[in-house]
UniProtKB/TrEMBL annotation:
Name of the protein: Thymidine phosphorylase
Source taxonomy: Eukaryota, Metazoa, Cnidaria, Anthozoa, Hexacorallia
Biological process terms in GO annotation: pyrimidine nucleobase metabolic process
Molecular function terms from GO: 1,4-alpha-oligoglucan phosphorylase activity; pentosyltransferase activity
Keyword Glycosyltransferase carried by entry: yes
Domain (Glycosyl transferase family) ranges: 82-122
Pfam families given in the database record: Glycos_trans_3N (PF02885), Glycos_transf_3 (PF00591)
GO cellular component: cytosol
Gene3D superfamilies on file: Nucleoside phosphorylase/phosphoribosyltransferase catalytic domain, Transferase, Pyrimidine Nucleoside Phosphorylase, Chain C
Swiss-Prot/TrEMBL keywords: Glycosyltransferase, Transferase
Chain ranges of the Glycosyl transferase family 3 N-terminal domain: 9-70
Amino acid sequence: MSCEYRIPDLIAKKRDGKVLSEKEINHFVKAVTSNGASESQIGAMLMAIFLKEMNDDETVSLTKAMLSSGSSLQWPEEWRGSVADKHSTGGVGDKVSLALAPALAVCGVKVPMISGRGLGHT
């Protein structure tokens, strides 16, 4: 990983209310995904972002960096137009997925049931 930026410097910059550049945000996300940032550094950055907020450009940069940080599922070409996802935003007691996924599957729609355990209460 490049040493172009130091994680503590990025945390301090955000803590001080300054705007992070797209390159700085990309560097931070790469550090997180490659285990180059400690849990305490990640927590400190999240706290700085929470307290000082991000402007629209920072938010877009973070979203893009997170989007491109992982791997993507590749569906067969013949499935184009027939893959759907039903995603819950975490409403307590949301049981729609349990009935909806099989109903869509019967109609020929591919519904990968990818769930997020981070919601905890669903």
